[in-house]
Amino acid sequence: MNLIYNVMKTENNNFKPALMFVLLGCVLLSCREIEPGVDPPEPESKLPGHLAGNWLESWSLSMAHEFDSLLYNPQTHVWFRGSYDPWSMDPVPGFGIQLRQDGSFIWAVVASTSTGGCQIYTARYLKGEVKSEGDSLIFSTATHQMKYHSVCNPGNNFDRSEDQNSFSLSYALSSTSNNAGQAFEVLTLTAPDGSQTQYMRNKYN
Length: 205
Prior knowledge:
Blueprint: E1 53-56, H1 58-62, E2 72-73, E3 78-79, E4 96-99, E5 104-115, E6 118-133, E7 136-150, E8 158-161, E9 166-177, E10 183-190, E11 196-202
Antiparallel strand pairs: 1-4, 2-3, 4-5, 5-6, 6-7, 7-8, 7-9, 9-10, 10-11
């Protein structure tokens, strides 16, 4: 299962910054006089309700891990709630994406490999706004943090803020089930180059 578009690279590859903060809120409604007996208009939703919620990679879902919106804390600049790595956290978090109907999102993922006993992981945390246009999701990041950690090559380690940018992914929803008959919803995200990543959630949660 692929990771998000241009997100996870191997140790010797170049990292492409991808993402820019674009959307600003409007406060006009707070200044408008409302007639007596007339309810103020509801704010417009930026995301269809059926997309809202926590979507996890299959391993996280199978382990019953839950999404942690503070895998990285943008205010304190602390990863993993102060733990050594995400697997040292208690509880161990699930990796995936949180979409909210108000148009905010958090994308928190970690990719890990082990070669000759040398663990390498790359963690990314993206936070910002998302809106739907047809069958596409338009993401605009306010926070984009990346952490790379290699046990055997610590000189290559870094923790840095990536460029803020915008990107578009097409999406599709489907259903699947496991051998036990448990049903899941599947969110498939497709990048412009055709690469795909999938996230899942329990269908009846």
